[in-house]
Amino acid sequence: MLPPFAIAGLVATLVLLDHTAAYRSPFIGGEPRPPRADAIVELESWYLAKAEEEVRLAELLANLDTPTMVDLGRQIVHGRGLCFNCHRVGAEGHGTQGPDLDGVGARAGERIAGMSDVDYFTQSLFAPHAFVVEGFPNAMTPVDEAPISLSELDALMVIAYLQSLGGTTTVGPETELAR
Ligand code: HEC
Q1: pLDDT tens column, 43-68
Q2: Mutate to test the pocket of ligand 1, among 92, 140, 154, 159 (most ligand atoms within 8 A of CB)
Q3: How far is the CA of 57 from the centre of ligand 1 (A)?
Q4: Are the C-beta atoms of residues 165 and 103 closer than 8 Å to each other?
Q5: Which helix (H) or strand (E) holds 69?
Q6: Which long-range contacts (CB under 8 A, 24 or more apart) does 32-38 make?
Q7: What pLDDT score was predicted for residue 118?
Q8: Residue nearest to atom 13 of ligand 1 (CA)
């Protein structure tokens, strides 16, 4: 039998250890918990979800087809393409400086005599000053320049999405843009 002062000393040591952030006493109970455990778990699941999304995107890109391009193009127009700074698509988006892109797939082939919808879109994106839609300022930034900075494939997917807005989607991963 330990003398009472030794027992008291042991208990005090365990309580003290129990209160240090990095170590939780197995005698007194509870799993060892790192500091900010909840925040770490939350961040972990965020990174996992992001990694899963990246794998999903990589799979989509490996098997790229027209419907997938429309879907990815939509994400670009609604997000990092910054199009909604100036455009809307019907009730989606809030930009007003440029035309509402709703129905643009139907009118693109009619804008300039002899120019196909794909060629018109290519010009609208890469050389927006070549033709300025009546009633709007000559204010669009070419999409391959900062801050938009889209790649050729990004632009192809954007065009697939724009075609889907009232037109027929014809572009695929092999389509060459006439630039
Ligand atoms: C800084 C504002 C701005 C941004 C950002 C912008 N646009 Fe524009 N866009 C305009 C303006 C203004 C016009 C009309 C004048 C013109 O034809 O250049 C226009 C015209 C267009 C047209 C022709 C529409 C028609 O009815 O013929 C298309 C297509 C288009 N933009 C697509 C896009 C896409 C896709 C993005 C994003 C990748 C984008 N724009 C980003 C301002 C912008």
Answers
A1: 999 999 999 989 988 898 888 999 99
A2: 140
A3: 26
A4: yes
A5: helix 66-78
A6: none
A7: 98
A8: 98
Instruction: Write the pLDDT tens digit of every residue in 59-95.
Output: 988 889 999 999 999 999 999 999 999 999 999 999 9
Q: Look at residue 119 and tell me if it is in a domain.
A: yes
Residue type, 167: G
For residue 95, tell me if it sits in a domain.
yes
Residue 57 domain flag: no
pLDDT for the residue 89 = 98
Q: Could you list the residue range(s) of the whole structural domain that residue 104 is in?
A: 62-164
Whether the CB of 140 sits within 6 Å of ligand 1: yes
Domain count, the chain: 1
Model confidence, pTM = 0.79
CA 157 to CA 74: how far, in whole Å?
A: 8
Work out which ligand 1 atom sits closest to the CA atom of 104.
26
**166 Rama class: left (phi>0) / alpha (psi -120 to 50) / beta:** left
CATH number of the domain that residue 112 is part of: 1.10.760.10
